[in-house]
Amino acid sequence: MRLKNVVLLGVVVAASALAQTNVPDLSGFWERKDEFGGGSFGGTLERIPRAQVKQEVIEEAKRQAAAQAAGQVVSFGSKWCLTGSYPFFMQHSAAWDLVQGKDEIVLAPEVHTFARHIYLDGRKHPDPDKLIPSPNGHAIGHWEGETLVADTIGFQGGGGTPGGGRVTKNAHLTERFKLVDGGKTLAVTYTWDDPTVYLKPHTYEMTYHRSDPATYAFEEYCHADDEAQGGSVVQPAQR
Amino acid sequence: MKSRMITLAGFLVAAALPVLAHHSFAMFELTRDVTYEGTVMEYRWENPHTHIIVKVDPGPGVDPATVGTWDVEGGATNIMGRQGWTRATFKAGDRIKVIAHPMKDGATKGASLFYALMPDGKRLYHDIARPKGEVAAQ
Amino acid sequence: MNILKSITGLAVGITFLSVSAFAQNRPDLSGVWELRFDSKNVPAAALTTAAANENKNVQFEHDLHAVRWCHFFGVPYVMDVTPIGVTQNVNGKEVLVTTSVRNPSRHFYTDGRPHPSKETFDPVSGGNSTGHWEGDTLVVETVGFSDEGITAIPGGGHRGPNSRLVERFRLINNGNQLSVISTWEDSTIFAKPHTYEYRYYRAPKGTELREYDCNAADEARAKYLTPATKAASK
């Protein structure tokens, strides 16, 4: 009996270790591909289901759009190189690098924002009174079979999601990362839950294609002091 | 203080839209592919956008609507770099053939780059946008 | 049956581990590492005459401008932004260094690749880094620097397009410290290679990197930093 318990304990310990090591290798550079529009600027993103948001969110968006159309809003985040809060870089046409460590997975973007850490060591989210809102929020993850499940709270808010959603400090994001197509693509299912924004959780999937293995990280520098940052062939210039 | 508020408000609106590049591209005819074949006058490899100034001369087989000097706008250098572009891809004086989406207003000789067709037949894409069916075929 | 499946899984896991960095007896440098008062051992750099005669205010102005406008800081400054995060890919192909400032992560490619061609590589604030292991030491070579960001180098001098940095990362003190020995070579700046060491301490378990944002449109920021720039140039 005692021997049987020892054997079982050994198997449990081994299985536990495997849970952390025998998992798919998601690492590498990933990028979107878009055949329904303009790549960086719409296309696939516009095909994402519309979020069902509360009426006051729609009204606020209308007010802001009207103000912008009337010329009252004269400044743009891109002119000032403001930080793109999550999930900005996951929608961008620049690739991002997934680095798979023993205790965490890091998503490293090349646009002007921060690397995103998804902790896999079993830690919990900080207590609400100690949680510091940030562009990427606080993310913890675990494996469910071959799927990485990431749970994120603590967003500072201010950005948007595909499908017309909004990110606020109350947002709770659940993501499921899974290799498909023999590892050539990575499917990420996003579910945003926020009772102050959505009538029901906003769920959509995006597919990322594995970049050329020889690719490397570029730096998308952004110079707010450069006049060109506010200009293009498109008028009016941003201010 | 007021201007800061306006700045933030602008960012909120911009972030809410499904527009993730440096500026909106609603003014381009993204479904229309026009070929501009001519001479590179300037090749500005820079952020936030690379610009290729292309002079199209009149001639046999040249669409008169494309004649003139065009500002063909590309993406940031990192985005184009991953598609195979470099700072040495073109220089002033080179012949060039680009497929681009012209501006809707027709008055401004500006266009959004889709891809350049290189002499060896290879396409150098602006960014992650591809012709319909190409992604599925990969 | 379940036990059999577990044992089968174990075999698969071992196969996986055999190609990982850890099964190759590589130390795992991963962790959050912080600088403390006694972490730095930085001698004065031996500069070329030309570099020694450079106007130090110009360097100060350059670097402060980068701070004022939220440019990427780049290397080596990000190694001073304590704590730094090190994430070693389990597949052995890359080591990533992250910081709490809005700066590109440092990617050390350890898959045997060479640097990209100088003819086409666009110099950047962090350069391009490749790495290999020499015993228990990760040796990282970085080239391809631009003048973006904070270019001053600890001990004197600054990075530029001709600069080459070699860093040797090694765990010491039973894994409680990370030694990073940096050597800069640039015949236009240094009379001889400039070497210094940072010894980071492993941060307490659970320490996380924050995200300190930077807003170039912040009027208070501009007001605070601009007069200092002007004062320095007098």
Brief synopsis:
The complex is a heterotrimer of chains A (239), B (138) and C (234). By secondary structure, chain B is of the alpha+beta class.
Provide a descriptive summary of the structure in words.
Chain A has 239 residues and is α+β, with helices and mostly antiparallel strands. Chain A is 16% helix and 27% strand. Chain A is built from 3 helices and 11 strands; from the N terminus they run αβααββββββββββ. In chain A, the strands form 2 sheets. Chain A has a 9-stranded mixed β-barrel with strand order 1-2-3-4-5-6-9-10-11. A two-stranded antiparallel sheet of chain A has the order 7-8. Chain A is globular. In chain B, a hairpin with a 6-residue loop joins strand 1 and strand 2. The longest helix of chain B is centred in the first third of the chain and has 15 residues, at 2-16. Chain B is globular and about 35 Å long. In chain B, strands 1-2-3-5-4 form a 5-stranded mixed beta barrel. Chain B contains 3 helices and 6 strands, in the order αβββαβββα. Chain B is 18% helix and 30% strand. Chain C is an alpha+beta fold and 234 residues long. In chain C, helix 3 runs antiparallel to helix 4. At the A-B interface, helix 2 of A face helix 1, helix 2, strand 5 and helix 3 of B.
Low-confidence stretches of chain B: 1-21
**For the largest beta sheet of chain C, what order do the strands appear in spatially?**
1-3-4-5-6-7-8-9-10
List low-confidence stretches of chain C: 1-21
Along the chain, the helix and strand elements of chain B come as HEEEHEEEH
Helix content of chain C: 10-25%
- End-to-end Cα distance of chain B: 51 Å
From the helix content, strand content and strand pairing of chain B, which structural class follows? Answer: alpha+beta
What is the radius of gyration of chain C computed over CA atoms, rounded to a whole number of angstroms? 20 Å
Q: What's the multimeric state?
A: heterotrimer
The geometry of chain C reads as: globular
Structural class of chain C: alpha+beta
Number of helices of chain C: 4
- Number-wise, the strands of chain B total 6
The H-and-E topology of chain C, N to C, reads as HEEHHEEEEEEEEH
Helix content of chain B: 10-25%
The chain pair with the largest interface is: A-B, 62 and 56 residues
For the sheet with most strands of chain B, the description reads: 5 strands, mixed, barrel
| Amino- and carboxy-terminal Cα gap of chain C | 80 Å
- Our count of helices of chain B gives 3
Mean pLDDT score of chain B, rounded?
81
